[in-house]
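Q: what sequence does this backbone want?
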């Protein structure tokens, strides 16, 4: 009798202890941001860069751009960069800001907002996320073709292919972490791919916490915490509020997650507990 009572109790305690992380909302902007897809914190300069689709998600209409938002969400510059199409992922190396924009990677001076170059990627029609490694090598995903491209000296070369639903990227050292559909994987320097975890929903953005763990988002309205060992925790489900969670940004020093809410036209900040 005692064992029958005690065993369910242990199972309940085990389930409760498995969820170790939570998030708390700090602030959100008004619905004034023109379809934000990605948020990139620049902690050194105390600013958030925000890619603005400002139209249909994959239409080359020239309406897109990049805005700048203060890190407390109170001051917003909506026209820092104009003349893009449907920009999505953002990455920064030195003073250069890289933006994935349908079929090209746009290189921008992060101080002035001036467009310096547009790097056309052969056959691309769905460039989505972009990351830069510590040597300045750029990687960009093409969701529609399942390819990942590598750009060195502003010249693109095919790096990985046949990754269904490929989206989020993050280069760390010699490894490339990738969201491919529901699969969170890592490609090492030899392009050997290892699966870390399978998520309930397709992956959009991914950000390292700094201890081998990651925060991942799913566009439909989910944010997940994934440990180095592959355990998945749900931090947020905003589907009932119809708030998208696109390509998130993360400030590891303050443990703040910045969420572009896409069609809700706002950015929301959460603290990771």
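A:
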């Amino acid at each position: 009798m005692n064992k029958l009572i005690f065993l369910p109790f242990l199972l309940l305690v085990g389930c409760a202890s498995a969820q170790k992380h939570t998030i708390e909302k700090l602030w959100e902007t008004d619905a004034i941001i023109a379809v934000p897809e990605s948020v990139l914190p620049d902690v050194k300069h105390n600013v958030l860069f925000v890619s603005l689709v400002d139209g249909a998600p994959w239409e080359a209409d020239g309406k897109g751009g990049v805005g700048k938002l203060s890190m407390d969400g109170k001051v917003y510059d909506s026209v820092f960069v104009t003349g893009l199409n449907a920009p999505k992922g953002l990455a920064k190396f030195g003073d250069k800001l890289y933006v994935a924009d349908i079929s090209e990677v746009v290189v921008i001076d992060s101080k002035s907002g001036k467009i310096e170059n547009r790097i056309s990627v052969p056959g691309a029609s769905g460039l989505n996320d972009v990351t830069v490694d510590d040597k300045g090598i750029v990687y960009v995903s093409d969701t529609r073709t399942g390819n990942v491209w590598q750009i060195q000296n502003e010249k693109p070369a095919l790096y990985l292919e046949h990754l269904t639903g490929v989206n989020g990227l993050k280069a760390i050292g010699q490894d490339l972490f990738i969201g491919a559909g529901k699969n969170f994987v890592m490609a090492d320097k030899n392009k050997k791919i290892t699966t870390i975890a399978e998520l309930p929903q397709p992956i959009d953005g991914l950000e390292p916490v700094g201890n081998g763990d990651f925060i991942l988002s799913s566009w439909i309205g989910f944010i997940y915490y994934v440990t180095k060992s592959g355990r998945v925790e749900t931090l947020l489900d905003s589907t009932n509020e119809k708030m998208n969670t696109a390509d998130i940004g993360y400030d590891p020093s303050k443990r703040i997650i910045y969420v572009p809410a896409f069609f809700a036209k706002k950015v929301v900040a959460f603290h990771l507990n």
